[in-house]
Amino acid sequence: MRFEKYDSISEFEKTTEKLLLKNEVENNLPLGIINGISNNPESFEDKEKAFLGLVRDGKDNINLITIMTPPNNIIVSGVGNQIGESIKEAIEFLITHNIEVPGVIGVKDIANEFAKQWAETNNCIIKVHMDQRIYRLDKVNSIKKSSGKLRKATLKDIELIAKWMGDFNIEAVDVELSEEELINKAKDHIKNKKLYIWEDEKPVSMVGKTRPTKNGIVISYVFTPKEHRGKGYATTSVATFSQMLLDEGYKYCSLYTDLSNSISNSIYMNIGYKPIVDSIVYNFK
Predict the structure, then answer these.
(1) For residue range 77-87, what is the model confidence (pLDDT) as tens digits?
(2) 137-276 architecture in CATH?
(3) How far is CA 49 from CA 32, 44, 120, 240, 278, in A?
(4) Predicted structure pTM score
């Protein structure tokens, strides 16, 4: 086993893309991040701190791919056999080079093994941050839709979008951002045409897109404020937006759900999203 660290995103992409695409939905996170850095490097302020690496076995086969864009958790993707040994090799490299790892995210069995080995090696506590499921949609089901229409978010919506993003982050991922961070994030998403609003006389819900890969794209920032919930706005906006993206040429849409939220999981399956694999996020303390 040997660990290889890459400083060139183009070389890393060339080396790993074909393997990751074999399970494109499962690997949408690493694929999307690699694609994002490669196509829009100026959007990643800490791109020089990005950690890109992989583990090869004695036959030169790639067994494990790792990506970390500080301050985010390390992403682990298993693409071969001997995952336990490959993770051990990666952890040894990280420790030897004093690379801080705040947590891990990945398909459950691989992330579980990484978290276990990291805790044993570093004598730290691991905490589940979110138990997730990755879904894929190829065709939107016929559903009863709420009143209103979908429109692209504009800079006139920036204060509302920033507030909704803040509420979403607290509810969905338990992360609180400053007002300045939220305004900047909202501005970036609006300028890059990533966010849409469901409007029923007034804005009542939002939905976004992120991390396009070769064949698909991820639905994100699905949020309806509490005063507008229970009216089908989220279901309608996600269904309408997903169909729009399929019509644009994407072969599929995918999304992550929190498994503890049974309502959102049932909503997405009703639209036509089908479970592919479970993922998990651990934080290290």
Answers:
(1) 998 778 999 99
(2) 3-Layer(aba) Sandwich (3.40)
(3) 18, 10, 26, 38, 29
(4) 0.92
